[in-house]
Amino acid sequence: MVYVMGVVGFIFGFIAGQMLLYFMLRHRSREDLLNDPSLKWKYGILNWLIAGLGASSFMSMYERYFF
Question: What share of the chain is helix, strand, coil (3-state, %, to 5)?
Answer without folding.
Answer: 85, 0, 15
